Amino acid sequence: MAIPTTTREYHLPNPGGLKSLVLEENPVRMRKSSEVLVKVHAVSLQFRDLLINRGLYPMALKENVVVCSDMAGEILGIGDDVKGWNIGDRICSNFAIEHLSGNISTKTFHSALGGPIDGVLTEYKLVPAHSLVRIPAHLSYEEASTLPCAALTAYSALFGPVPVKGGDTVLIQGTGGVSIFALQFAVACGATVIVTSSSDVKLQVASQLGAKHLINYMTTPDWEQEVLRLTDGRGVDHIIEVGGAGTLAKSVTAVAYGGWISVIGVVAGVRLALWELPHNVPYEAKTRLYEEFLASWVSPARVCFERIAEVLLEFVNLKITAHFGRFQALEQHFGYVFSHPR
């Protein structure tokens, strides 16, 4: 295949919903010696993409940004200094292309695709070779495109400084992409999983994937008390906290002493400083927050992506597309929405 000189891509000149996206055709810039040119085969949508599209994302964006962060594709061209990759290799790129390992820094923070820098909803994409991870052979492009953000975030949360283990109890909020991956990882490790959702239908799917305890937070608004009841007052070892400001106070109550809250999403609210926890959060719970447990902000690195790719070689039964989308702008649906640029 001849190396393309132009690419069609979706830009967001002004946030305001799907109608704000503009399809442009632009030149493919000159490839650096450390970069590869990728033909994008599939792009998955994340809740972050919806927030950006609607102007609700709290972080700064590149002007007229190319949207979306997660893709799977095929290498078409290789820079002179690139080693270990070949034309035709099937790859994903890490969510933040400069976050290779360790804690996030200012540099890596500003390398997240589809936000501070242009994203992947394009026909062809130039990316640094050091950001690439090989796609497991048994995964399609569509399946692999769901890994960089949702699966890797779930993996980083559960297998970070204090890895989940058999006998642990894990609380997972909701049934979105990160939550469904985390549910399956936790069950595979022998943990007892509690799942919250506003839908009994979604909770039944979570049960089929291995969740032991199901809590509908619409009918049980004090779900943190139900978690304590289910754990005989002890609390849970890990919490996948995707709600943000709207749920963090309840998570503080539900976590065990020495447990972990992995702060991931903002589904129920965008900002909450720890010192702004509502006054009705018990003093003991605040004490846990400051002294007894660690609240971990999850930002996945490429080294973790490599590990999860190895894990998935053995984990062939993972339900990669069993995710409940919440993109009302695209109408209510089950599963990821994929884009195949042509």
Give the strand tally: 15
N→C terminal distance: 14 Å
Spans with pLDDT under 50 lasting ≥5 residues? 267-298, 321-342
Strand content: 15-25%
Radius of gyration: 20 Å
Overall SS class: alpha/beta
Task: Compute the number of helices.
Answer: 10
Helix content: 25-40%
- What do the pLDDT scores average to? 83
The main pleated sheet reads as:
6 strands, antiparallel
Shape: globular
Compose a concise summary of this entry.
With 342 residues, the protein is α/β, with parallel strands linked by helices. The chain has helices spanning 47-53, 106-109, 141-144, 147-158, 177-188, 200-208, 223-230, 248-254, 283-292, 302-314, and strands at 6-12, 22-27, 35-44, 65-66, 70-78, 90-93, 124-128, 132-134, 169-173, 192-197, 213-216, 236-241, 255-263, 294-297, 338-339.
